[in-house]
Amino acid sequence: MLEKGLPKTVGSFGKAGKAATFSMLFLLSPLVAAKEDPDHELEGVTVTARQSEERAKDVPFAISVVDGGTLADQRLDNVEDALRSVPGVNINSSAGANDSNVYIRGVGSLYQMNMDDNSVALIMDGVTLSPRSISLGTLDVERVEVLKGPQGTLFGGNAEAGAINVVSRRPTRHREGYLRLEGGQDEQWLQEGVISGPLSDQFSGRFALRHATADNWVDNKQTGDPLTDQKDLAFRGSLLWDNHDATTALFIAERQKVEGRTSVLVLRPYGDDPANDLTPGLFDDNEKTMERYSMEINHDLASSRVTSVTAMTRMDLTDPVVYDRDIMEAMYGSPMVAWLKKEADERTYSQDLRIGSLPSSPLFWTTGISVSHSERGYDTTYDSRDPSSAKFRDFTTEQYGLYGEVTYPLFDALKLTAGIRHSWDRKEYDAVYRSSAGVVRDQRDLDDDFTTGRLALTYVLTPSTNLYTQIGRGYNPGGFNDYASQKADSEPYDAATAHSWEVGFKTETERLMLNGSVFLTRVKDAHLIDYDVITWASRAVNADTRSRGAELEGRYRLGRGVSIAGAISYLDAEISDDVTGISGGDVQSGNQVPDVSEWSGYAAIHYDRPLPDNFIGLYAPALNARISYQYVGERPADPQNHFDLDDYGMLDARLGITSGAVELYLWGENLLDETYDLYGYYESSTVTYGAPGRGRTVGAGLSYYF
């Protein structure tokens, strides 16, 4: 979580035998082998998980952190990729820019109802974003914090499983920057640059730009070419005003446009070269644009800080979903192409005003009010089988919240944390359904208010080790189905509530970081959509779930330039009631939660050491090498548990040589060339489809820091 190149959020890992042996090797062996080496000590981990700077060790719930150095070294170029490296996190993704569903510790929507339906909140620089934006690039990001367990106290609804807190780098009072160039197989090219520094006595600025391209790893059988050419153009500009007294203001403007990152549906089994049989050009207008404009003002009083965060976010999406000839022939016996075109847009205005303790205060507290207004559209048109059919849906959401949290020392070694939030949600739905039968208008509204919070105790066992226990309540609000094609489909669905219990420990010394926890979460009315791919009719249903498990993650610096990291996660997540009469078959109590692997883990070793002077004529040469292995166990593809997605292991490596401020490096991803599923869909006992992940690729890069 700290040093460049050392993976600090250590991801998911294996079946019992594989996982335990491999991760224990990395977690425990250095405790005996290390020698004193003061130049290779870990730094303390600072987070803003509770909207103020704190040591991660002092926060009374589990947090995994991926820092900017790890993001760059492991080529985790978007938030989704970063999350895949975190223990206890699972993602269902069709490889598109708007289709990911995140589970933390087995908690999440069983099948999402709409673009707002997610059990994990996404926050960037204090601004809440749509949970479907985890495709957001990690351009010039300082760290990604994954907050586990209900986080409704500070972030309201859509945080029943946890939250993702993304923190970008701020303008500096000294001049700094970097350039990064990469190229690799599948036409993977990346150009990235950042410059930061003072503009005047009171103003500093920072500007970051990234342009990346890559071929889709699925081909089109009709042409032999990649299905799409993926393009990603992103920038962020930030301006910091500091009056050098008690007030600062940070202005941020950012924009990202992604093209060709389309949803992929491939008939299983994929074969050695996954491909679709499609008419060329169907994905030509696929794109997603995300924008954020925010202003954060901080003013320090004698013993507290007042903070105001004002923001406007915008998203536009055009995303064709196409069933190719192979899938349609397997389903209906006729090699045709079927498609629907999704077009979505969203505008959100938000304001958060709070007052809380200063970062240096021994007593943590914060209280505030938040307001947001969102207007969203989600429209679908269909293929030539029903050319008159189109659905136009508009959603309006207003949210208000009052919240507060305090950590109070009961005794020298015992602290109590209590947090509570009350939220009010109002949602309106306005739709027009067009078909050959005519035009139907649909209007509905929904009002809800709810309370979330947590209660925790932290015991300081030693100066380097804390024990904690926490109970929390989370909430995923009800709403309206994005896929409604008739009035009966748009009946509001129920809210989901989660109750969570957790016990854990956190240790930080000069060389060792080790965190562990056991947990149990029960969810009432988790969301599940009943969707018929033949008629496109849908309805909202609910099912209860229960998840329990344990996690262990750590890092250790052996010295002499060697660092190791590892993690292991065990999850037992099951659906705890019956859901009958839905498309695709009944869901039985005792079925496993889809997309959640029982065992997962991660292990890595990193070596960073100076080379002999004038090595091959280089100035101040050094070697930077890393090898990592991530394991994801098998997991069910759907709530009915029709079939399982196979387990897989990903072996990645990086080897770099630095000379002064320049580094040349080679990288390799999925070196074992594993074929694995990003998701799977059951159509019948003989027909399943999904999205394969990218196979083995290698490349080279150059970085220059100034």
Describe this structure in words.
With 706 residues, the chain is mainly beta. It contains six helices and 38 strands. The strands form seven sheets. It has a 22-stranded antiparallel β-barrel. Strands 3-8-9-6-7 form a five-stranded mixed sheet. The longest helix is centred in the N-terminal third of the chain and has 13 residues, at 16-28. The protein is globular and about 70 Å long. The two termini are 23 Å apart. Mean pLDDT is 90; it is low at 1-39.
The count of DSSP E runs of length 2 or more, i.e. the number of strands, is 38
Helix content: under 10%
Q: Give the biggest beta sheet.
A: 22 strands, antiparallel, barrel
Structural class: mainly beta
Global outline = globular
Q: Mean pLDDT, rounded to whole units?
A: 90
Low-confidence stretches: 1-39
End-to-end gap? 23 Å
Rg over alpha carbons:
25 Å
Our estimate of the beta-strand percent is: over 45%
The total of helices stands at 6
Layout of strands and helices, then pairs:
Layout: H1 16-28, H2 30-33, E1 46-47, E2 54-55, E3 63-67, H3 68-73, H4 79-83, E4 89-92, E5 101-104, E6 120-124, E7 127-129, E8 141-148, H5 152-155, E9 162-168, E10 176-184, E11 188-198, E12 203-215, E13 219-220, E14 229-242, E15 247-259, E16 266-267, E17 275-276, E18 287-300, E19 305-323, H6 325-332, E20 338-356, E21 364-382, E22 390-409, E23 414-435, E24 438-462, E25 465-476, E26 496-508, E27 512-531, E28 538-559, E29 562-575, E30 599-610, E31 621-632, E32 635-636, E33 644-645, E34 648-659, E35 662-669, E36 677-684, E37 687-692, E38 697-705
Parallel strand pairs: 6-9, 13-17
Antiparallel strand pairs: 1-2, 3-8, 4-5, 6-7, 8-9, 10-11, 10-38, 11-12, 12-14, 14-15, 15-18, 16-37, 18-19, 19-20, 20-21, 21-22, 22-23, 23-24, 24-25, 25-26, 26-27, 27-28, 28-29, 29-30, 30-31, 31-34, 32-33, 34-35, 35-38, 36-37
